[in-house]
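Late entry, written up from scratch paper. The run itself happened at the end of the previous shift, but nothing got recorded in the book at the time, so transcribing now.
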Amino acid sequence: MTGLDAHGFRLPAYGGGALADVLPAVVAAAGVTSPDLPRTSLELPDGEHWVVVLVDGLGMQLLQDHPRDAPFLTDVLAAAGSATGGGSGGTVVRTLTAGVPSTTATSLTSLGTGLVPGRHGVVGYTSRVPGTDTLLNALKWDADVDPHDWQPHRTALGLAADAGMHVTVADKREFAGSGLSVAAFRGARRLDADDVDEQVDGALAAHREAGTSPSLTYLYLNDVDHTGHGKGVDSPAWRTALSGVDDTLDRLREELPDHVRLLVTADHGMLDVPVDRRIEVGDLPELSDGVRRLGGEARLRHLYCAEGAAHDVAETWADTLGDRAVVRVREEVADWFGGIDEAVTERIGDVVVAARDDWAVLSAEQFPLETRMVGFHGSLTPVEMDVPLVVC
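Output as recorded:
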């Protein structure tokens, strides 16, 4: 776990303490080797069979702050002896970091590929298609953008399958063949699972079908994130969603054979942004000078600038926003993305704006949906960046 920088940001712990390290570590713990898997220093307890569950939006701080709403996970934290690291036997609890930005599309691709964002290229909820002023929405995707071109690397799941592991993704039918699914999870066997019952049954079936082969089954639960965006993390509806996810995990652990490892993690945390902490770009005309297009999302904006304007734009935004955000030109934030491959460079903003505390930068004209949201994520604060790694 990395410390906080001068801005109160948690920098990503790529290479051994980040979400991208999880699947390479799982494959190694299962005794499966592939020379092409990304290297990691993350170590997990040995086990040939794994079910990996990603709970969208369940940051570590949110989990720690709601013990009554997550009794199963809270008991596992207690059994491990610490909520930030440690464990005994097969129980492990520690805190990892998301990558940057701390958002679903980026994190799912980091998980599935084992790569940092600057390599796999899914660098935000929205990002520029190089050579155009068009944005790719990485959750909805664009039929004109081939996910194999956008993310050309083999996935950790695919490499594990090629090395002899029985690898299954149990996910909703609506995600089958989507650009994000192809970019992040191609190479795995797919199992349609539209609700909790089908997901649990799918995990059990995948384990049975693996037989004596090492196995890895991936499940995705999104109720916590969906509710947080709409109602906020400080709402009864959010706590109900967390309780439902916790019940699912408890059931899954109960029904899986004892020798199957259950690993629970998340893609990011979330925080509520009050109305008076929302900076509307349309109200500040100077913020449009030299900016061709806004991208990213409210907590981490990509600014795509006119040629040669990046430094002037960065200065204007920094002067206007003050201590409400960290404003940097692209070259100054390469480490946030784990380094940046040449093919990925133009997808990242010429200027990157990361919100501090509970501020957000909105544009009602360009991103109207965000004006109706309560919960947000994407920046580098600990509540957004810190995610749990729970093995039980």
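The domain at 19-123+137-272+381-391 is CATH 3.40.720.10 (Alkaline Phosphatase, subunit A).
(Scratch paper discarded after transcription.)
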